[in-house]
Amino acid sequence: MDDRARELSLFTGSGGGILGSKLLNHKIIGMVEYNEYCQQVLAQRIADGHIDKCPIFTDVREFIQSGAAEQYRGITDIITGGPPCQSFSVAGKQLGEHDERNMWPATIDIVRIVRPTRFLFENVPGMLRFEYTKTVFAQLANLGYGFKYGIISASDVGARHKRARLWIVGKREDVANA
Questions:
Q1: Which residue has the higher pLDDT, 176 or 177?
Q2: Contact at 8 Å (CB) between 119 and 145?
Q3: Residue 62 burial (CB < 10 Å; 0-12/13-18/19+)?
Q4: Do 16 and 37 touch, CB atoms closer than 8 A?
Q5: Is 7 left (phi over 0), alpha (psi -120 to 50) or beta?
Q6: Which residue in 49, 98, 144, 170 is deepest, having the highest Cβ count within 10 Å?
Q7: Largest CA distance in the chain
């Protein structure tokens, strides 16, 4: 029997985060990535045996609308992902929730549908400057998740560069020892 944590990865990119998850002995059960080149990289990493064989979905909104998200209810231990940061980045127009690239609504819909035991989300620290972040946190709490958040830089864990990131980690409050 495979007792590894089953992970659904959103906004997977070329798979750097899930390679980290593999170090934690997670079983990757699905990936959602919009960028076609990144999808090709993920497919090659599966073919090479570096990532568990699993479906690669192309868009979080289509993942929901097609009913695919429903198939992950009851089998997903953790959802990970970094919704696109352009909406909140100081390098962008800082339109927050009004930016068409804001994928938090789809992200929270997936959490609502799938009901994972845990989640780990990453974004730019600038997200905390937006009033909208209170909505994000309220939505997680209203779904019954306890969570913590903080800013951790790559340099905090030994890297030579800073690359600060907002990390939000949580678990369902109705599940003991999650």
A1: 176
A2: yes
A3: middle
A4: no
A5: beta
A6: 170
A7: 49
**pTM (two decimals):** 0.94
Gyration radius of the chain over CA positions = 16
Residue 148 has pLDDT above 90, yes or no: yes
Write the DSSP assignment of 40-81 as a string of letters: HHHHHHHHTTSS----EES-HHHHHHTSTGGGGTTT-SEEEE
How far CA 123 is from CA of 4, 5, 65, 84, 168, in Å, comes to: 26, 23, 24, 8, 9
The amino acid that residue 110 corresponds to is I
Q: Could you tell me which residues are beta bridge partners of residue 53? A: none
Q: Is the pLDDT of residue 95 over 90?
A: no
Residue 40, C-beta contacts closer than 8 angstroms, at least 6 positions apart: none
Torsion of CA 85, 91, 92, 96, to 10 degrees: 50
- Contacts of 62-68 spanning 24+ positions with Cβ under 8 A: 63/32, 63/106, 63/110, 64/106, 64/109, 64/110, 64/113, 68/30
Contact status, residue 7 vs residue 18, Cβ threshold 8 Å = yes
- The Cα–Cα gap between 50 and 20 comes to 11
Q: Which amino acid appears at position 9 of this protein?
A: S
